[in-house]
UniProtKB/TrEMBL annotation:
<dbReference type="GO" id="GO:0008097">
    <property type="term" value="F:5S rRNA binding"/>
</dbReference>
<dbReference type="Pfam" id="PF00861">
    <property type="entry name" value="Ribosomal_L18p"/>
</dbReference>
<dbReference type="GO" id="GO:0003735">
    <property type="term" value="F:structural constituent of ribosome"/>
</dbReference>
<dbReference type="InterPro" id="IPR004389">
    <property type="entry name" value="Ribosomal_uL18_bac-type"/>
</dbReference>
<protein>
    <recommendedName>
        <fullName>Large ribosomal subunit protein uL18</fullName>
    </recommendedName>
</protein>
<keyword id="KW-0699">rRNA-binding</keyword>
<dbReference type="GO" id="GO:0022625">
    <property type="term" value="C:cytosolic large ribosomal subunit"/>
</dbReference>
<dbReference type="InterPro" id="IPR057268">
    <property type="entry name" value="Ribosomal_L18"/>
</dbReference>
<dbReference type="GO" id="GO:0006412">
    <property type="term" value="P:translation"/>
</dbReference>
<keyword id="KW-0687">Ribonucleoprotein</keyword>
<comment type="function">
    <text>This is one of the proteins that bind and probably mediate the attachment of the 5S RNA into the large ribosomal subunit, where it forms part of the central protuberance.</text>
</comment>
<keyword id="KW-0689">Ribosomal protein</keyword>
<comment type="subunit">
    <text>Part of the 50S ribosomal subunit; part of the 5S rRNA/L5/L18/L25 subcomplex. Contacts the 5S and 23S rRNAs.</text>
</comment>
<comment type="similarity">
    <text>Belongs to the universal ribosomal protein uL18 family.</text>
</comment>
<dbReference type="InterPro" id="IPR005484">
    <property type="entry name" value="Ribosomal_uL18_bac/plant/anim"/>
</dbReference>
<keyword id="KW-0694">RNA-binding</keyword>
Amino acid sequence: MAKLSLFEKRRQRVRTALRKQAAGRARLSVHRTGRHIYAQIIDDAAGKTVASASSLTKGSKDAGATCEAAAKVGKDIAAAAKKAGVTTVVFDRGGFLYHGRVKALADAAREGGLEF
């Protein structure tokens, strides 16, 4: 069995805790890279992505790795979730720490109407 990195251990720990709390709710999954940030709302029961948003969208490409871009992605994902009929989710930060861009995205998604 291969040894897991600290990031992978943290990701598995977060995901395991979420499965216990989910109770059939959709999952707001966040992925962060050095240049961009991505968010998806996933219905794990159906195995489908309900909505998605990223800093790759046209017009925000120059500000991909900032907290402002992450906040815009948070607002976009909240709007897309409302359009798809999703109001409550569980926040899956993956192996990323809850600060900076991840926190900015979460706060903006809450302001946009998502409950978690």
